[in-house]
Amino acid sequence: MKKITVNFVLNGKPVSVEIDENRRLLDMLREECGLTGTKEGCGVGECGACTVIVDGEAVNSCLVLAASVGGKSVMTVEGVQKPDGTLDPVQQAILDNHALQCGYCTPGFVMSAKALLMKNPHPTRDEIRVALSGNLCRCTGYEQIIQAVEDVASGKYNEMPAK
Ligand code: FES
Ligand code: FES
């Protein structure tokens, strides 16, 4: 398999990664970059567990060729908290609302919510539902997750402004 080098910005830092040319973004992030917060659920674009943000847009990293992020900015769940370890408001609100059980889906929900809030800091409940509609949770259900994002959108976490 032909090797290529992908240069991109990962969680705010420039990186250069050598990969097989047909590598998925999901695999490059987890294996070459060692960031295992991004999960594989279905592998076919149905569950959202692999969601990351590329140039401000939430994408399913299982469907994206790693080579395509050359020159772009990629944010994973490892990149949302502050350097001192303070959780992002979305993460904190998910904890406060008991909006996870096994947690396998949670990184994907966090990234979809972040992508929404970066574009629209005060979405309606319906806008939140639409933004999270590509993310599946098999154990918690959706009400607490939507409530968590709504709490952030309402300004409840304004003392922890979203990045
Ligand atoms: Fe990518 Fe399910 S693993 S959408
Ligand atoms: Fe288990 Fe969502 S918390 S799949």
Structure description:
The chain is of the alpha+beta class. It has five helices and five strands; from the N terminus they run ββαβββαααα. It has a five-stranded mixed β-sheet with strand order 2-1-5-3-4, with helices on both faces. The longest helix is centred in the last third of the chain and has 14 residues. The mean pLDDT is 96. The structure holds FE2/S2 (inorganic) cluster (FES) (2 copies). The site of one FE2/S2 (inorganic) cluster has 10 residues, from loops.
User: Globular, elongated, flat, extended or rod-shaped: what is the shape?
Assistant: globular
Strand order of the largest sheet: 2-1-5-3-4
**Number of helical regions:** 5
What's the N-to-C terminus distance?
A: 39 Å
Largest sheet: 5 strands, mixed
Percentage beta strand: 15-25%
Mean pLDDT: 96
**Assembly type of the shown chains?**
single chain
| Amount of helix | 25-40%
Order of helices and strands: EEHEEEHHHH
Structural class: alpha+beta
